[in-house]
Specification:
The structure holds two protein chains of two kinds.
Chain A lengths: L12 H12 L15 E5 L5 E6 L2 E12 L10 E8 L14 H15 L10 E3 L3 E13 L4 H15 L1 E2 L2 E4 L5 E4 L8 E2 L7 E7 L6 E3 L3 H6 L2 E7 L4 E7 L7 H38 L14 H12 L12 H18 L1 H7 L15 H9 L11 H9 L13 H11 L3 H5 L1 H15 L1
Parallel strand pairs in A: 4-6
Antiparallel strand pairs in A: 1-2, 2-3, 3-6, 5-6, 7-10, 8-9, 11-12, 11-13, 13-14
Helix pairs in contact in A: 3-5, 5-6, 6-11, 7-8, 7-10, 11-13
Chain B lengths: L21 E5 L7 E7 L2 E12 L12 E8 L15 H17 L8 E11 L4 H16 L8 E8 L2 E4 L3 H4 L5 E7 L4 E8 L2 E2 H37 L2
The chains are: A alpha+beta, B alpha+beta.
Chain lengths: ~450, ~240
């Protein structure tokens, strides 16, 4: 229960009775059934590691940032993870600025427990120098609108932000190998965190009547309910944490039933989060290759390779020494199959990047007929595919975006080199330079 | 590290389903309306209850029920290394919230409107299971203060190490990184009011561990009833009945 403050909202008895009576007939005030979740929408910001989640009227934002710090004495080989919550006064009249209230601390700890103890985030990979420097990941959760069930929304936001966060790559250097060099994003592509599984928080509300139980309570239902429980479950069927802080007593049967329900809901939500992150990664890569839309045909897939490009464009710096990966030919084959599936998704986008058949040279490189059909289907403004021709096309098509978490920009090297020349689109398009550089970068890349 | 030896003995010589020694004492703090000391093995906790009394912060007064406040703090000397901040840190805030809501479920607050009941819990020695010991101590203190309750609230923790469910973890077993389940029940009503768990555990094993912890709670409940009965006899004796 919240501290009773002068400006807090009080629910009327009529409202309370209405909600309870409706629940007796398995109806909720917003038309849902007792075990339905509200509409969930996950959006991402321009920067890596920031997410915005809307669950019905509840609006939550999460930002992930990393810093190199000293590890804890007891765990010299592990990175650290910290969750901070900010209950903005604009979210609810009863939130006050300043020190976090009990509920803010509780929310932070529930999210923290779900991630930390269940080892969802791999902390050992965050160690740079054992005992001296490790990555300290900080998750800031901001509540923007309190529509009820802040825990679930905050948890989803935190997970989404963690999945899209990229930390700078660092390597050990210096005479004794003790110096840590942090590579800026322009130099080396930042790498994502290793996340083993996604612990999803599912909140249940219990009412004084035994038979009533709801999932994902709204703000009004929260004022009526007499007990609550947050079960953090992952899609594999493991319970990562349970938080039932007192309140109405329930018997064992009901508890186990809740666990099973939570497991089902966790599966749904995990799928939604993964889809949203997938789309984000696609767009991220797209942004990178946008500049070279002419030179690179893309069925885009958002190769992490493109990410390198993007950074260079956006930051205006040009040194991009990203490792060049697979040779175009191999990529091509991979490309097509995934290209097909990706096609629909990226239809709109790909239009910009896929040139018409007129500029396509079928003899420079072998091209799959499927690929050709795909590109024809998603007719776009004829961008000059000219020289790059299929070579770059295929490169572009490679959508190892699937799970190429290990971003090894393929075209990045290509791009990087181009950038060296000059930063206009024209330069990027120059065939002669490109080819020469491509060869060069292929050598330097891998 | 091996937490259960092949013979089935834990680090401190207990069996997996064996609880630690419990000891309770009522009336430790003379100024308080009700108080109790509760020991579970090496974990020692003192609880003091003040109330029902007038609400100190008028804006928080509730016209239909009593306001329950709870403060959990750990003494600096309670753990191996001296603790820097005994209260106000996030863990203490969370545990205060948890204890408060657990006790709120069983106190009949509607019998005491416009009043306030304060529960102060202080950990003197921490050796795992402090949350449970605090709740048990608070129950005894509330009973000593004569505050009407629906039922006792008893609590116990259980874990799962070396593929064995273990009852009543001590500090070493708790910090092993395995799951730690704390359960608080209303014994007569047979309902679970507090349930907290951390670390990963498959659902079916969770069920076993929760069952085990519930059994532990019932054992604690029996002991608490004995203590309360004994205490009442003492009171009767002193009154000359």
């Amino acid at each position: 229960m919240e501290q009773r403050l002068a400006n807090s909202w009080r629910q009327t008895i009529n409202e309370k009775n209405f909600i309870v009576t409706a629940l007796l007939s398995e109806l909720r005030v917003d038309g849902r059934r007792p075990f339905d979740y509200r509409k969930l929408s996950i959006k991402f910001g321009k920067d890596d590691g920031s997410s915005e989640v809307q669950l019905g009227h509840t609006h939550v934002m999460a930002i992930v940032s990393g810093q190199l710090l000293q590890p804890y004495k007891e765990r010299p080989n592990e990175g650290t993870l910290a969750v901070f919550t900010e209950f903005s006064p604009m979210a609810d009249p009863s939130f006050e600025p300043g020190r976090p209230t009990e509920s803010a601390v509780e929310l932070g700890r529930i999210v923290d427990r779900g991630l930390r103890e269940s080892r969802a985030v791999d902390t050992e990979s965050l160690c740079v120098l054992s005992g001296k420097l490790v990555w300290a990941i900080r998750i800031d959760i901001h509540i923007l609108d309190n529509g009820g069930n802040l825990v679930d929304a905050a948890n989803i936001a935190a997970l989404a932000a963690l999945l899209t966060f990229r930390r700078p790559e660092c390597s050990l250097g210096g005479e004794d190998g003790q110096q840590v060099v942090v590579h800026p994003p322009e130099m080396r592509d930042p790498i994502p965190l290793i996340i083993h599984h996604l612990p999803i928080a599912v909140t249940f509300g219990f009412f004084s009547n035994e038979n009533i139980m709801v999932i994902d309570p709204t703000h009004h239902e929260e004022a009526v309910m007499t007990g609550r429980m947050t079960a953090t479950v992952n899609a594999n069927g493991d319970v990562c944490s349970i938080h039932k802080p007192g309140g109405e007593g329930v018997n064992h049967r009901v508890l186990m039933h809740c666990m099973k329900l939570a497991h089902v809901k966790a599966g749904d939500i995990t799928a939604k989060i993964k889809d949203a992150v997938e789309i984000y990664n696609t767009q991220r890569a797209l942004r990178k290759i946008k500049r070279h839309s002419s030179s690179v045909a893309l069925d885009v897939g958002g190769t992490p390779a493109k990410s390198g490009e993007k950074e260079s464009q956006v930051d205006g710096s040009h040194l991009h020494q990203s490792k060049l990966k697979d040779e175009p030919s191999s990529m091509e084959c991979d490309a097509t199959s995934s290209g097909q599936e990706q096609n629909d998704k990226r239809d709109g986008v790909s239009q910009k990047f896929i040139g018409g058949p007129s500029s396509w040279d079928p003899y420079s490189e072998c091209v799959n007929s499927d690929l050709l059909k795909a590109s024809l289907a998603s007719h776009g403004p004829a961008t000059h595919r000219q020289q790059k021709g299929s070579r770059s096309e295929t490169k572009a098509e490679v959508p190892p975006q699937e799970m190429k978490i290990d971003s090894s920009p393929t075209d990045a090297g290509l791009v990087a080199v181009q950038n060296n020349e000059g930063k206009t689109l024209k330069d990027a398009v120059k065939p002669k330079n490109k080819r020469k550089k491509k060869k060069v970068s292929s050598n330097t890349g891998n | 590290m091996e937490f259960v030896s092949p013979e089935g003995l834990r680090l401190d010589g207990r069996r997996p389903m064996e609880m630690r020694q419990i000891r309770a004492e009522i009336g430790a703090v003379s100024r308080a309306d009700g108080s109790a000391i509760f020991e579970m093995g090496n974990t020692k906790v003192v609880a003091a209850v003040y109330g029902p009394r007038e609400v100190q912060n008028r804006s928080q007064q509730m016209s239909d029920q009593a306001l329950i406040r709870c403060e959990y703090s750990m003494a600096n000397f309670s753990t191996g290394d001296r603790k820097r901040k005994p209260k106000g840190d996030r863990r203490s805030t969370e545990i205060s919230l948890v204890i408060r809501q657990t006790m709120e479920a069983c106190i009949m607050t509607n019998l005491m409107p416009r009043s306030q009941i304060d529960i102060y819990v202080q950990v003197l020695q921490a050796d795992g299971g402090t949350r449970s010991a605090c709740i048990n101590a608070a129950t005894l203190a509330l009973a000593d203060a004569g505050i009407p309750m629906r039922d006792l609230v008893t609590s116990c923790s259980a874990g799962y190490l070396n593929s064995t469910p273990l009852l009543d973890l001590n500090y070493v077993e708790d910090s092993a990184g395995g799951p730690d389940v704390t359960v608080g029940i209303l014994p007569k009503l047979d309902k679970v009011t507090l349930l907290q768990m951390d670390s990963k555990l498959p659902i079916d094993i969770l069920e076993n561990v929760v069952q085990l912890a519930t059994e532990g709670c019932k054992a604690v409940a029996n002991y608490i009833r004995e203590i309360l009965l004994e205490n009442t006899k003492q009171l009767e004796y002193r009154r000359g009945v």
